[in-house]
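[Q] Does anyone have a clean structure-token version of this?
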Amino acid sequence: MRAGRSTRLGSACAALSALGTLTLAAAAAAQAPQLFAPSSSCMACHNRLWTAEGEDISFGHAWQPTMMGNSARDPYWQAGVRRETLDHPTARGAIEDECSTCHMPMATFEAHAAGAKGSVFANLGRGAAASPAAPLAQDGVSCSVCHQIEPNGLGSRESFTGRFVVDQKTPWGSRHAYGPFVVDANRTHLMQSAARLRPVLGPHVRRAELCASCHTLITHALDSTGRVVGRLPEQVPYLEWLASGYRSTHSCQACHMPLVDEAVPFSSVIGQPRTGVRRHSFLGGNFFVLSLLGRHAQELGVAALPQESSLAVAKTKDHLTGAAAQLDLTVVAATGDRLDFDVAVTNRAGHKLPTAYPSRRVWLHVRVNDSAGRVVFESGQLDTAGAIQGNDNDRDPGRYEPHYERIVEPGEVQIYEAILGTPQGTVTTGLLSASQYLKDNRLTPAGFDKTRVEADVAVVGRARQDSSFFGGRDTVRYSVALHSVRGPLSIVGELVYQPIGYRWAQNLRARPSAEALRFLSYFDESKRATSAVLARASAAATARIE
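[A] Here you go.
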């Protein structure tokens, strides 16, 4: 039923547009030089890897269910790209080209090498509907992308927004695959015979600059004619990391590709044990889309097995709850008619929390109960629709919740988020309609000085003047009216995270498309699974309150 409904919802205009793009893509694919190998070429030798205790660390099995492996299949990304092309139809080709650069990099780079643009929707078909470039496009951010990126220019602004360099001159069969280890002549010959790539030492694969190109995205606001009218640092975790104390202690890979603590081979075919091998699980923050990919694998064309998808979701949640943040709760005063307490949040990540795509948000859910367990006060409760009770933005797309230093009413909620604004100052979730942040109080990392950082990572709004919001930490004072409530009281605080905020999902309804309505059907059926608790703290007001 859902598939039939989605087909009917595809407009004639979109169908004709996709047909034209498919024709162009097919022509480009026929002329494109071979620059990449599919992941299947690598898995034969880089699967079947285990630690001494039996943990499966196979690179292919770990990568296949990740957001990297499914960057092209991500249903929220597909809905978002479609929304942008409907908002800005005159720029459709440029939008698909830019969005496919990092989500479908192999197909897009080969299209560029043939003098064409990258495509999104023409490359999503399967079977008879698939374009010649579809297999590479749908393989996402695959092995031969990251391992063929050249070191020159990495970390520079010229390399951002997917402008990394891949050698286009060396013929297939002699191209370099960069890795962190020296490989001897016999094993080099083996890999060159099997995968047609020649392994060479490339220390840059261990550095954050390798990740910076696609994880630093600068977008440009467009007016109704497609003219550029503004600029937005849409997602810049690399720049946030550069402004933190982590830049000298932890690379991106250190957290997102956990180290194997023993010497292990990285090839199952005459591999030799190496110290310093990293897992290819690419731990990130989007457990929600990972769960959708597993639940709707057949519809979305996901290759990972169900148990692999479930494990990827579990590992992502474990990573978030174990490493993202710390919450502390301190009672300041408890009198007959008022309870004052502080909730302090510490960001333990090497970038803002949350970071990257601006649909993400974390917030404080705080509850006070009396001696009988009755709720005296509650702020930040998630309702059954996936919205935060009291949040202005979830109730009204034109408004947003301010940053708070002090909370006294249940309708006031401390939400750490990025609110986008148009050149005219109105709230938007359209990436190519946005040219500024109206609010950015996402928790900064340790070592981050909000008074001295560059504009692209600035704190925006009331948090900039909040003296307790600094260097990786924020403290909020709660002052709760008791009205002769019977004590003692218990206080529970939670830091809750949502990869795709309610408003960011619901605004897709304004531009209905097959992709948008498919994602919304997923969101609506999974409302209770859209969030996760990152940290908890509790305290008791021990004085008896009458």
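[Q] Thanks! Anything notable?
[A] The first strand starts at residue 175 and ends at 179.
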